Amino acid sequence: MAFMKVVFSLLASAALIFSISALAQSPTRIGTAVQADSAESLRNLLPLSVAQPPRELATGAEVFLISGYEPSNKTSVGTAVKVHIDRPGSRVLLVLTSYERVNWQVSASPSTTVSGIVVSGYERPTVTTTIQAPGYLSKLPYSYQTENINFKVILTRLNEIFGIRKLDVFRASYSIPSAITISALDAPRAELTIGGATPKRPAKDFPFSLLATDHTKVQWTLTGATSKVDKGYFGNGKIALSKSGKVIYKLNGDELEIIDRERGRSYTPFFPPNFPRFSWAMDLAYDTTRDLVTVVTLGGEGFLYRFDAKQEKWIDFRSLENIDIYSLAYDQKADRYVAWTGGGSLLFISGEGEALFTKNVMSKMEGFGRLYDRGNSQVPRMTVAPEGDDIALLYIGGNTVKRIWYYNVKTDSADLTYKAGE
User: Fold this and answer.
1) Cα–Cα distance measured from residue 365 to residue 197, given in angstroms and rounded to the nearest whole number
2) Tens digits of residue pLDDT in 270-299
3) Which among 79, 321, 401, 409 is least surrounded, fewest beta carbons within 10 Å?
4) pTM for this predicted structure
5) Which domains, ranges and CATH numbers included, belong to the chain?
6) Where are the beta strands (DSSP E) in 166-260?
7) Which residues neighbour 151 within 8 Å (Cβ) at sequence distance 6 or greater?
């Protein structure tokens, strides 16, 4: 035993000596020296006012927006982005936004007038220029996509400040190029306007009902409600009516609550001990063909549960295999369920609860991206109103129907058909 201790001691000493020797021999490095800004550079540094820019800066001006997350040449020795405006005889309002710090270096051709430069960034940006134009530091998000709520926020804020409703030029990417020259305007298109996509008349219209917050059904079509109503709607779902309308099924936290309005009682049905408890219960739907209540949850790998409304007992459950379902609807015409998933797809499920097929529809829904910050937040929940191969997809915000898209399974196409006032 003593011999082993001696051996371990010698090995430890050898390891220590080797470590010290290796440390002594390894080269020591420090960062490259960064030179201070030149006097000329500092003279060209544009003062940025934090006051609100005057409205007249946009009068008769073309509005250019350059935006992105970071400069493409981001290094420890500089973050410069050169922007050159060549619009002879034009008046230009230049808006520059980013997340990471950018040193915007702005120039313009002799006969181009820059009325003002509005700059914004989470990490305070700088502007160097020889142009005689006022500079303003504003609070605007960055966006390198027109299909993003941040793009809408930028346009909304510019409208508040200057009264503008569209952009004439939009140059954007996640990594902003080190040099940008603008000499021509972008082609006019709806996505560059504050209103965005405009509704189209659907190729085929059909009626469907929405459950209002007073538990009555309101008739709608793809182009709006069939009558003027002052009622709110359940934007988060989690509620359904029986075929007769006399019983309400709702998700109360992570429990199914049954409200029998005719008998005046409310109760929670017995939950089988071999069932996984509800965790993140998302939505439920009433199968009018079989008189079943189907519940979907997110917890764990996600589960789909079926409840016999007549027998008042749970039938079965099955794993959703990590498919995140946000909303669920039963389609009596096709005898199947249609679910909206966290990936922006429609999942079709048989009346017996078996997966049928999936359709990726989010990318086909013009204007959908403006509802959220893509890449940084969850896909918004959509209410689904199916009628066979014809499906209405509704975005409900603040208990109000804001958007309706018409999706057809056979053509695999989607059109915006309804848009409430902003």
Assistant:
1) 10
2) 999 999 999 999 999 999 999 999 999 998
3) 321
4) 0.85
5) 41-192 (no CATH), 208-419 (2.130.10.10)
6) 169-172, 175-176, 179-182, 208-211, 217-221, 224-225, 239-241, 247-252, 255-260
7) 143, 145, 370
